Amino acid sequence: MSHDPTITTAATTTNGNSPRDSTAITTAAVRNPKPTPSQAEETMRCVIRKTHEVLSHALSYKYAGIGDPACDAEALTGCCGLAQSFIYHTLKDKGIVSKPVALQTLPGSASFPHVTLTAEVDTTDGTKVYLLDKTFQQFCKGKDGEPGQVLGRMAEGKDLLDALCKEGFVELTPVRASSYLAAFNGGCLPFATEKKTMNFFANPISSKMNLWFSRDDMERWGYIGNPAVPSLRQRRSLAPTP
């Protein structure tokens, strides 16, 4: 599986010159076709940062920006479709396979409709699966029974809750997958085994709710890929001052 093309290694020459100036090149580090786990995590972190910028722009009509935990729970409500779709198409551009999934497809249906996605990266330490959920904080309003509160009460849930709220992603393990889904299911595990739990993410149940917006949508709105549309940064500079 390919990975973030920005990950590169360095080369040196025997006489200290650059490779362009000499034909006698000694490679100091041979490029590995697989990223290290830390490189894979940095790629996820970069994608989440870009998602943060998109959400901040999309919500600018109502909020000064996102980043304040005190208001993000309200600001991010209903933004999961935009965030998830942007992450999906951005990862695809990097050659990373991701699996969008609607939690409404859980057995018995989820009490809190939500979409998220996982990404698989073949690293030097084996295949790593990441859960990316930039808008999970919308379920942390302090209301009884909401996913954030349920997750925080679980023995294995506090670290997961902190990671999702602070980082927006986490490496997905069977235990974390079970805790995450249980949080949307009133604290009850929706599957009898960890294998079935992981399979729910690896092979999402077919649903039109799994992915809300197409790449054409993202390009038309100027969030990715379309040079004819001003970038978010350009649009901010062109926006009238209040």
Give the topology.
Blueprint: E1 12-13, E2 25-26, H1 37-58, H2 69-75, H3 80-93, E3 97-102, E4 115-123, E5 126-132, H4 147-153, H5 158-166, E6 169-171, H6 174-183, H7 194-202, H8 215-220, H9 232-238
Antiparallel strand pairs: 1-2, 3-4, 4-5, 5-6
Helix pairs in contact: 1-3, 4-5, 4-6, 6-7
Give your account of this protein's structure.
This protein has helices spanning 37-58, 69-75, 80-93, 147-153, 158-166, 174-183, 194-202, 215-220, 232-238; strands at 12-13, 25-26, 97-102, 115-123, 126-132, 169-171. It is an alpha+beta fold and 242 residues long. It has one domain (34-226). Helix 4 (147-153) packs across helix 6 and helix 6 packs across helix 7 (194-202).
Outline of this structure?
The protein is α+β, with helices and mostly antiparallel strands. It has 9 helices and 6 strands. It has one domain.
Largest sheet, in brief, is:
4 strands, antiparallel
The number of helical segments is 9
In terms of quaternary structure, the protein is single chain
Give the strand content.
Answer: 5-15%
Mean pLDDT: 81
Query: Which series of helices and strands comes N to C?
Result: EEHHHEEEHHEHHHH
In terms of per-residue confidence, which ranges show pLDDT below 50 for 5 or more consecutive residues?
A: 1-30, 238-242
Tally of individual domains: 1
Strand order of the largest sheet: 3-4-5-6
User: What Rg, in angstroms, do the CA atoms define?
Assistant: 20 Å
Distance between the termini: 48 Å
- How many strand units? 6
Q: SS-based structural class?
A: alpha+beta
What percentage of residues falls in helices of 4 or more residues? 25-40%
